[in-house]
Backbone:
């Protein structure tokens, strides 16, 4: 592609400001990348998770401070479909199961994984979707308070000129 005697290569996807942009405007590759970053952050402190020296509250704070921001970077502008929401929820549940550990089944006496309902009871903080929704609302509030002359508000309210 040439613009003003400059040649540009046409690519399927590229990374801009830490976000993967595709020619199909698909968010799937970005979600995969974010989950890889979150997994890398989680695995970098994985030796702390099974430690009995740290309380569960400290482990949750480590998750919320290190892994969650890597996954949720730029989530305010993402439009997630059901499958991507499931992938994010699976990531969060996997980390929380590792933090809280297995439970002993009362009937069989064997160790078992925690069910999703049990994780929701043990982790009272907002789940990953509530965090995304609150960040979207906060962004909408920032944009709503912008001056009318600013160009950024034109994209938010759908008033594109030219």
Residues:
């Amino acid at each position: 592609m040439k613009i003003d005697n400059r040649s540009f290569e046409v690519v399927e996807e590229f990374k801009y400001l830490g976000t993967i942009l595709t020619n199909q405007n698909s968010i799937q590759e970005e979600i995969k990348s974010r989950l890889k970053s979150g997994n890398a952050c989680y695995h970098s402190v994985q030796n702390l998770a099974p430690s009995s020296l740290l309380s569960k509250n400290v482990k949750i704070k480590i998750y919320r401070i290190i892994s969650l921001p890597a996954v949720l970077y730029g989530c305010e502008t993402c439009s997630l479909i059901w499958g991507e929401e499931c992938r994010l929820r699976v990531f969060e549940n996997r980390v929380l199961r590792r933090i809280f550990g297995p439970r002993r089944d009362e009937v069989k006496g064997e160790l078992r994984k925690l069910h999703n309902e049990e994780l929701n009871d043990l982790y009272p903080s907002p789940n990953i979707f509530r965090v995304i929704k609150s960040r979207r609302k906060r962004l909408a509030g920032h944009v709503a308070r912008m001056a009318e002359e600013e160009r950024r508000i034109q994209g938010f309210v759908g008033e594109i000129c030219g």
